[in-house]
């Protein structure tokens, strides 16, 4: 809660300072004229919690794009009309069902709309993906409107970007006079172009999500281990002798690791099962043992025993038993030399002719495990602690770069960005097609009513009344869903 409050304070402080600076420069005699001229020249404007940029430099680009394959574009945007109308029906039914389901069950299990709030349910490490996705989706949405408008002989006055509080977006300024006099079908091609492009973004992102592993084959290796892409600072595995970025991991506690799924399985197994041991000849144990206490009394055998000097960083207390002494015996042994020996789970796993070999186990409590992490050509890392501490200290990837020049985070970036595109662009489709005031759905609904009812209901006032009722219903429906989503977010 403290972190969220700090971020809100910083954001409000930024907007307050920007607004006051803008007001100061506009009112000062020495700076007002030059400052206003600079705003006019660059297209920037500042208002309460909003920064805008507006320009006409993309108008020629829109014209050139609209002249490319006119027949194809006509078919393209006509497909967008059919998609927009179907999406509107599906969106209204979906949101209505969501409200009904909530009222019946009195709980929200699968919320369609989930507000994404930085610092609340959005990890700080993924804020850049979130903002970039919003900007890309917004720009391509508005470009769709602009190209469709130019193709239908509607003038584009300009194109702009904005930052509202912390959310980026885009907008296009169309000639409203020309837009009102063209036919309803031509209007619908313009109104539906934005959500149609958002839907295409979803399809392209899904395709990339499934195909990118094939494109990465020449640059990355998979199926032979995993690679570390991030190590948490000051964690148990950080430092010069710990794990580092780009280290390939192939084994964890004697469990082979070929994928992140294997890693998670090995972590779960190390938590659930007793610690594994290592096979050592009894003579070697006696030779390496540096402890003064070799045996434990029967009445204290259930307690955790530390037979090493607490200041020792290279030795660990191990327990074992021999044929002559079936009770647990404790020895302080060098941890690395001991764990380099063959792994054993039971005493029967250790056998050699004419040599007595024992399976020595780390003398640790039930929550602590000794895990040997094999990472590349470096000496294995010996992790002593709870396995989940290791699990949360690193971020991993299935894609091991074939060269030091290849980015280790590229597969993760592609995967994450595609998932954000699918989620946010799909959400923009659901939101924008709802017949709600100030959304594309309002104009799509108006165009559809004019297209279908103008011949059967010639009275425009009646058509306008039907339109107003539909838009009022859509506005209330969307407001209910947003309210429920916010309630679930902050109550949960």
UniProtKB/TrEMBL annotation:
Q: How does it sit in the membrane?
A: Multi-pass membrane protein
Q: Which intervals hold domain Peptidase M50?
A: 130-473
Q: What keywords are annotated for this sequence in UniProt?
A: Membrane, Transmembrane, Transmembrane helix
Report the catalytic activity.
Answer: Cleaves several transcription factors that are type-2 transmembrane proteins within membrane-spanning domains. Known substrates include sterol regulatory element-binding protein (SREBP) -1, SREBP-2 and forms of the transcriptional activator ATF6. SREBP-2 is cleaved at the site 477-DRSRILL-|-CVLTFLCLSFNPLTSLLQWGGA-505. The residues Asn-Pro, 11 residues distal to the site of cleavage in the membrane-spanning domain, are important for cleavage by S2P endopeptidase. Replacement of either of these residues does not prevent cleavage, but there is no cleavage if both of these residues are replaced
GO BP terms: namely: membrane protein intracellular domain proteolysis; regulation of response to endoplasmic reticulum stress
Provide the leader sequence positions: none
What EC number(s) does this enzyme carry? 3.4.24.85
Q: Which InterPro entries match?
A: MBTPS2, Peptidase_M50
Transmembrane ranges? 6-25, 75-100, 127-148, 154-174, 195-215, 466-490
**Compartments, record wording:** Endomembrane system
Q: Name one GO molecular function term.
A: metalloendopeptidase activity
Q: For this UniProt entry, what is the primary localization, expressed as one broad class?
A: membrane
Q: Which GO terms describe its cellular component?
A: cytoplasm; endomembrane system; membrane
Entry's PANTHER family?
A: MEMBRANE-BOUND TRANSCRIPTION FACTOR SITE-2 PROTEASE (PTHR13325:SF3), PROTEASE M50 MEMBRANE-BOUND TRANSCRIPTION FACTOR SITE 2 PROTEASE (PTHR13325)
Biological function: Zinc metalloprotease that mediates intramembrane proteolysis of proteins such as ATF6, ATF6B, SREBF1/SREBP1 and SREBF2/SREBP2. Catalyzes the second step in the proteolytic activation of the sterol regulatory element-binding proteins (SREBPs) SREBF1/SREBP1 and SREBF2/SREBP2: cleaves SREBPs within the first transmembrane segment, thereby releasing the N-terminal segment with a portion of the transmembrane segment attached. Mature N-terminal SREBP fragments shuttle to the nucleus and activate gene transcription.
What name does the UniProt record give this protein?
Membrane-bound transcription factor site-2 protease
The lineage is: Eukaryota, Metazoa, Spiralia, Lophotrochozoa, Mollusca
């Amino acid at each position: 809660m403290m972190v969220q409050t700090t971020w809100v304070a910083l954001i409000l402080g930024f907007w307050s300072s920007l607004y006051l600076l803008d007001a100061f420069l506009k009112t000062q005699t020495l700076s007002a004229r030059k400052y206003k001229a600079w705003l006019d020249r660059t297209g920037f404007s500042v208002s309460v919690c909003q920064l805008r940029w507006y320009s006409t430099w993309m108008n020629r680009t829109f014209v050139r794009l609209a002249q490319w394959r006119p027949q194809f574009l006509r078919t393209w945007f006509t497909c967008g009309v059919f998609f927009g109308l179907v999406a509107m029906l599906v969106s209204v039914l979906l949101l209505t069902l969501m409200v009904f389901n909530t009222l019946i069950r009195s709980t929200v299990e699968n919320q369609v709309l989930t507000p994404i709030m930085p610092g609340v349910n959005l990890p700080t490490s993924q804020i850049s993906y979130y903002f970039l996705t919003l900007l890309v989706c917004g720009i391509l949405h508005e470009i769709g409107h602009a190209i469709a408008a130019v193709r239908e002989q509607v003038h584009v006055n300009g194109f702009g970007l904005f930052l509202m509080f912390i959310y980026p977006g885009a907008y296009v300024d169309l000639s409203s006079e020309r837009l009102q006099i063209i036919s309803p079908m031509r209007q619908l091609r313009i109104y539906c172009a934005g959500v149609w492009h958002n839907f295409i973004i979803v399809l392209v992102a899904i395709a990339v999500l499934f195909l990118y592993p094939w494109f990465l084959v020449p640059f990355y290796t998979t199926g032979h281990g995993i690679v570390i892409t991030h190590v948490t600072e000051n964690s148990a595995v950080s430092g010069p002798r710990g794990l580092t970025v780009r280290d390939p991991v192939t084994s964890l506690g004697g469990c082979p690791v070929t994928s992140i799924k294997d890693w998670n399985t090995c972590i779960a197994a190390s938590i659930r099962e007793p610690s594994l041991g290592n096979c050592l000849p009894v003579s070697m144990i006696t030779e390496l043992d540096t402890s003064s206490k070799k045996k434990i009394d029967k009445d204290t055998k259930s307690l955790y025993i530390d037979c090493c000097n607490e200041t020792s960083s290279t030795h660990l207390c191990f327990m074992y038993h021999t044929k002559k002494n079936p009770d647990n015996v404790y020895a302080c042994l060098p941890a690395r030399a001991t764990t380099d020996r063959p792994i054993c789970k039971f005493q029967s796993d250790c056998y050699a002719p004419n040599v007595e070999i024992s399976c020595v186990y780390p003398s640790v409590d039930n929550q602590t495990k000794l895990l040997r992490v094999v990472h590349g050509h470096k000496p294995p890392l010996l992790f002593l602690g709870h396995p989940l501490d290791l699990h949360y200290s690193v971020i991993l990837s299935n894609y091991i770069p074939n060269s030091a020049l290849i980015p280790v985070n590229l597969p993760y970036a592609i995967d994450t960005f595609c998932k954000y595109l699918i989620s946010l662009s799909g959400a923009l489709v659901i939101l924008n097609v709802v017949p709600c005031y100030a959304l594309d759905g309002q104009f799509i609904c108006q165009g559809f009513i004019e297209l279908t009812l103008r011949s059967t209901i010639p009275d425009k006032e009646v058509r306008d009344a039907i339109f107003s009722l539909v838009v009022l219903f859509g506005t209330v429906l969307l407001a209910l869903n947003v309210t429920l989503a916010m309630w679930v977010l902050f109550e949960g």
